[in-house]
């Protein structure tokens, strides 16, 4: 990728705290105008990576470039980064306009220009008329928008967001997620977003970087990660999964022949990178790809029914003792304890390395 199409590059960037590795040497390119989410469990390194980009931490090694500028040793205030924190970090003694315009004020921007840009930022986040309000009078969603407007008003080269919806209730989170997505689609500000919520990552992102153990384990679009996870961790972390222990019998041109206890003896599946004969592997079958009542399926018993609104999740026990989860529409699901035959289409099987 040329510098012209790249907003940010990390080249072998790493971070340690004494004997603890917070980020292994990491290479990462973020496209100009892209919304990239860092997704992973607590302790995976995602917030460390974000703080290294922001300039709040110094790397042990590697380089950080914003556009063509090497900012590795630059302090945060000289990087032209916009930051939205989980707790918003609004100033209680300033009104909404004062909070949004604070970054411009410390940069020495003239008052008329501050007023113009604050008004434009308020309009952008749909808070026209809120300039004089105290931040304590705002709802959680409104405070989140003020924090976003404060980050955007300085016209940052890169916008960083560290779990900014974590303090909102579930329904409000869904609403604000869609607002953030629409705002990004309209204005295309290069954004790096941190979350441990897979649904949030899939809704918001152009690409998702899945992190585990202080490193990026896979990066791609939501569709790519869901359809083609490279190992069992990514498969389990992105969406619901059935992951069955499998033995690789043969492997040729990316297609594996596998044996799985309780299933047909001659299964074939697309093999992910890292799959090899003699190495532990898992057969991935997504719950929505299981067909109940398939004449050529394997025998199972419905052990549990979980209602999810218009859908139900069914826990199925095979004669071998293996268990599978299936999803289907709530009408005509069968009863707990009922026998059923379950099948699948071969093209929906994927073999991934056990992680």
Strand content: 35-45%
Distance between the termini: 30 Å
Structural class: alpha+beta
- Overall 3D geometry? globular
Looking at the chains present, what oligomeric state does this protein adopt?
A: single chain
Number of continuous helical runs: 8
Portion in helices: 10-25%
Q: Low-confidence parts, pLDDT < 50 over ≥5 residues?
A: none
- The beta-strand count equals 20
The major β-sheet equals:
6 strands, mixed
Major beta sheet, strand line-up: 6-7-8-3-9-10
Mean pLDDT: 90
- Rg to the nearest angstrom? 24 Å
H/E element string? EEEHEEEHHHEHEHEEHHEEEEEEEEEE
Any chance you could write out the topology, listing elements then pairs?
Elements: E1 6-17, E2 20-31, E3 35-39, H1 46-54, E4 61-66, E5 69-70, E6 81-84, H2 96-106, H3 111-124, H4 140-152, E7 158-162, H5 170-187, E8 191-195, H6 198-204, E9 207-212, E10 215-220, H7 222-227, H8 232-237, E11 242-252, E12 255-259, E13 267-271, E14 281-285, E15 290-292, E16 298-307, E17 311-318, E18 323-329, E19 339-344, E20 350-353
Parallel strand pairs: 3-8, 3-9, 6-7, 7-8, 13-20
Antiparallel strand pairs: 1-2, 1-4, 4-5, 9-10, 11-12, 11-14, 12-13, 14-20, 15-19, 16-17, 16-19, 17-18
